[in-house]
Write a structure and sequence with these properties.
This protein has about 400 residues and is α/β, with parallel strands linked by helices. The protein has 13 helices and 15 strands.
């Protein structure tokens, strides 16, 4: 059934449909509506879950890890400074192989303070062992909560996952969303049944001090699980498409790339705008396309190399900054394309919540086309900033 709802509301409904059992929570803009909706579901008897109001985000992730270790299906949400505050426990959760689902509503980090969208909060956790997926619209936000549990709880993975959606652009904006019937979700997502969990009848300890003789093996196991998630993501997407009729492409998605001469790599909501720009430029005879980066972890290096083979140039949109190094996505893409000869141009835009408009994306395409022709184009471009740019 179609509902016109915000992205935060869609996420909360997704958690309810997944029959989440424990929800530790602490509010922070712009994810607060997620927690408010879940609190209402629990209070009204629509959701049979333990709702835990915590004193901080650090405590939220501590409780989430503990509940998951005890065998519960766990959900929480955060943003920005909240994610930064729980940084210690975010890093602790993945090596413990706890399939927590935490939605991050992307928001800028201080300083200066801001409440609008950029990706520095989640990008700062890219080496934590958490899987990360970025959604384009409210429908994908709901659907990826459901898919996330299938991916995270798969025995080949058993890792926490962070679906990310743009603050305010999605979190507080209403769109039509197809809310699936709970019986359909039940057929797709079985109850969580961990092989190993904390049980008073069989006492055990997790997270003990690890001596150097074994520490590196733990890191290697976590790295292997992240790599194994690539196959699982593709499988789950394929199965989801069969059951629900919506196919998101897996690790990446492409648009009009069949005969494209240059491509722009997009992430999140700017993808929708970029599709319109591609259509307009195609009508002008310009062979352009887009590759939508869905998963940042695991990073789809092989898939990007295949999709971008033969391009005259590649542009990468980053809505975050790694100081003195361009954007994080740019760095990863350039590494993935090592040995391929096309120029790679980094387009920094929308940081701190500025709109990424059709005209701006068209400018990105034109600059990337110029690079493909051998023109002199800066490798890292700060778009629409006051004063001198890099």
């Amino acid at each position: 059934m179609k509902h016109v709802i915000t992205g935060d509301h869609a996420v909360a409904i997704g958690a309810k449909l997944c029959r989440v059992e424990v929800v530790p929570a602490y509010p922070i803009t712009p994810q607060t509506l997620i927690i408010e909706h879940i609190a209402e579901f629990v209070n009204d008897g629509e959701m049979n879950a333990k709702f835990m109001t915590m004193e901080s985000e650090h405590s939220v992730m501590s409780a989430a890890a503990g509940a998951s270790a005890a065998g519960a299906r766990v959900f929480t949400a955060t943003s920005s400074q909240g994610l930064a505050f729980m940084h210690e426990m975010v890093y602790a959760t993945a090596p413990l192989r706890l399939p927590v689902v935490m939605v991050n509503v992307n928001r800028s980090l201080s300083s200066p303070p801001g409440i609008w969208v950029e990706y520095n909060d989640s990008m700062g956790e890219r080496d934590s062992g958490w899987l990360q997926v970025y959604v384009e619209d409210n429908q994908e936000a709901l659907d990826m909560v459901i898919q996330s549990y299938r991916i995270a709880e798969d025995k080949r993975v058993l890792l926490p996952i962070m679906p990310c959606l743009d603050g305010f652009v999605l979190s507080h904006t209403v769109e039509p969303v197809d809310v699936p019937d709970e019986s359909l979700v039940d057929s797709f997502l079985s109850p969580y049944e961990p092989d190993v969990y904390l049980n008073p009848e069989q006492p055990a300890v997790i997270g003990m001090l690890m001596p150097p003789q074994y520490f590196m093996e733990m890191r290697r196991q976590t790295a292997g699980a992240v790599e194994a998630a690539k196959e699982v993501v593709v499988e789950v997407n394929r199965e989801f498409a069969k059951v629900f009729g919506r196919d998101y492409g897996g690790l990446i998605d492409t648009y009009r790339m069949e005969d494209a001469q240059i491509a722009l790599i997009t992430i999140g909501t700017v993808t929708s705008t970029a599709r319109k720009v591609v259509d307009d430029m195609r009508n002008e005879g310009k062979k352009v396309g887009i590759v939508k980066l869905r998963f940042f972890r695991p990073f789809p290096a092989e898939e990007l190399r295949a999709a971008l083979s033969g391009m005259g140039a590649v542009g990468v949109i980053d809505r975050s900054i790694s100081y003195n190094g361009g954007g994080p996505i740019f760095s990863e893409v350039r590494s993935a394309l090592y040995g391929m000869t096309m120029p790679v141009i980094n387009h920094l835009a929308g940081i701190g919540g500025r709109d990424v408009t059709e005209n701006l994306i068209m400018t990105m395409f034109e600059l990337t086309l110029e690079a493909a022709k051998g023109g002199k184009v800066k490798e890292v471009i700060w778009h629409e900033t006051r004063g001198e740019t890099l």
